[in-house]
């Protein structure tokens, strides 16, 4: 995994922001007021329409992308794909919107997926499913017909199960559990039960990795030849820490409490106090990831997702603002000037949680300009946004975001406008 930008130095951040301990540039008080109310209502409607367009009723997975300007169709590997991460954040955003019915339709599809798989019986969730209605049967996986080769093809990454994606599904199901259950402690609730099964799968399949104790990447590959990923991601461990802590709060299960502590410990080991930022994670051999391989979410999510995050971790917000920002939005890893819409929304919510409302509003104000005619937000402000990552599959190419309407970006912008923290199921202060 390589997220590469120029090496950053702590000297670039020298202005402290009040008692928060944030290392941020000075911000003028002349930014326009946040249009959060109008933005949120439009985004909520767009998400609800996307669910109904995928299927008029019943359990459903929603396609992550639709064709962008000048496109009549998507490339084969994306044409039918409903990425689990995107659908998980859509569940959470719809709950925040008050649309529990449509949120429940996606959540119900995840419950089916956790009970029934075409090959495995261990409760795993795949990285992607085929968009559309989901019957009470093993959900179809994405794929496309390769007319040149005369065969049906699938994507090795989409068939796999990444730890971070599974943790996000658990967060979505925990959100649904608390939104719908008569008693938060009812373990028989299918949303809570499936969330716990997903966390148990992570605990059983992602702990055998070199380096600091944490949770490794999961598995990738086609069903008959899946490979265990031994690198550990800071972002994945943030997700696990949040989901396991939430589950343990409901169940008081010592195993889930220990899981949250292990993931939190790994995140803590990745913080670089002298420069105020988080390393990407570890290499497959257990060594520290290169210091110049950075990603925006790794800097933002610790303060949102790790319970009782230490105050010095807030410095990573200032690091992101100093090194990954471009104008009214954020890049993924510092490449170019195109903004990553999803990341801009994440940054707005993270700064809001730290009390930096002027920065949060400035980022939020910039999101409305990236709406497609459908009301969904484009994944980028224009063109492509490189990540510095490779797709985790055989002969995987560069992982980039494109200027296409994106369910994930829309969901994150919805949560930012509504001030909803997906890691806790609560609004930020």
Low-confidence stretches: 1-21, 23-34
Q: Count every helix, treating DSSP H or I runs of 4 or more residues as helices.
A: 14
Report the radius of gyration as a whole number of Å. 20 Å
What is the residue-mean pLDDT, rounded to a whole number?
90
Query: How is the main sheet built?
Result: 3 strands, antiparallel
Write the layout of secondary structure elements.
Blueprint: E1 16-17, E2 22-23, H1 36-54, E3 60-61, H2 76-79, E4 81-83, H3 84-97, H4 100-115, E5 128-130, E6 132-133, E7 144-146, E8 151-153, H5 156-159, E9 161-162, H6 163-180, H7 190-205, E10 216-220, E11 227-232, H8 234-251, H9 254-270, E12 271-272, E13 277-278, H10 296-305, H11 315-323, E14 325-326, E15 329-330, H12 341-353, H13 357-365, E16 377-378, E17 385-390, E18 398-401, E19 405-406, H14 407-418, E20 420-421, E21 426-427
Antiparallel strand pairs: 1-2, 3-6, 4-5, 7-8, 9-10, 10-11, 12-13, 14-15, 16-19, 17-18, 20-21
Helix pairs in contact: 1-3, 1-14, 3-4, 3-6, 3-14, 4-6, 4-7, 6-7, 6-8, 7-8, 8-9, 8-10, 10-12, 12-13, 12-14
């Amino acid at each position: 995994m390589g997220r590469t930008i120029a090496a950053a130095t702590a000297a670039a951040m020298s202005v402290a922001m009040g008692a928060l301990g944030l290392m941020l540039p000075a911000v003028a008080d002349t930014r326009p007021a946040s249009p959060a109310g109008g933005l949120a209502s439009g985004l909520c409607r767009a998400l609800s329409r996307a669910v109904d367009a995928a299927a008029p009723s019943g359990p459903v997975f929603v396609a992550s992308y639709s064709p962008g300007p000048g496109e009549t169709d998507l490339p084969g590997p994306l044409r039918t794909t409903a990425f689990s991460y995107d659908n998980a954040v859509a569940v959470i955003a719809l709950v925040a919107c008050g649309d529990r019915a449509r949120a429940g339709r996606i959540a119900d599809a995840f419950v089916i997926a956790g009970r029934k798989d075409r090959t495995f019986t261990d409760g795993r969730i795949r990285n992607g499913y085929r968009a559309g209605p989901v019957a009470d049967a093993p959900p179809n996986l994405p794929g496309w017909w390769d007319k040149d080769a005369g065969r049906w093809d699938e994507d090795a990454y989409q068939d796999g199960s990444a730890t971070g994606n599974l943790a996000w599904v658990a967060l979505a199901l925990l959100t649904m559990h608390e939104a719908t259950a008569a008693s938060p402690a009812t373990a028989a609730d299918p949303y809570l039960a499936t969330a716990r099964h997903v966390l148990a799968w992570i605990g059983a399949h992602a702990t055998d990795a070199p380096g600091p104790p944490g949770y490794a990447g999961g598995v990738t590959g086609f069903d008959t030849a899946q490979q265990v990923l031994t690198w550990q991601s800071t972002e994945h461990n943030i997700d696990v820490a949040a989901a396991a802590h939430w589950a343990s709060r409901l169940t008081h299960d010592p195993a889930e409490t220990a899981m949250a502590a292990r993931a939190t410990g790994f995140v803590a080991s990745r913080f670089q106090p002298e420069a105020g930022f988080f390393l990407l994670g570890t290499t497959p051999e257990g060594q520290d990831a290169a210091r110049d391989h950075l990603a925006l979410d790794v800097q933002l999510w610790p303060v949102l997702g790790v319970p009782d995050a230490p105050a010095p971790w807030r410095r990573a917000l200032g690091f992101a603002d100093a090194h990954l920002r471009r104008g009214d939005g954020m890049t993924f890893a510092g490449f170019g000037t195109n903004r990553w819409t999803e990341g801009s929304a994440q940054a707005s919510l993270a700064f809001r949680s730290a009390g930096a409302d002027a920065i949060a509003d400035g980022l939020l104000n910039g999101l409305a300009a990236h709406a497609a005619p459908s009301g969904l937000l484009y994944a980028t402000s224009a063109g492509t946004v490189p990540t510095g990552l490779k797709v985790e599959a055989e002969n995987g190419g560069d992982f980039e975001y494109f200027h296409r309407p994106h369910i994930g970006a829309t969901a994150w912008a919805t949560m930012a406008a509504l001030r909803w923290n997906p890691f806790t199921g609560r609004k930020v202060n």
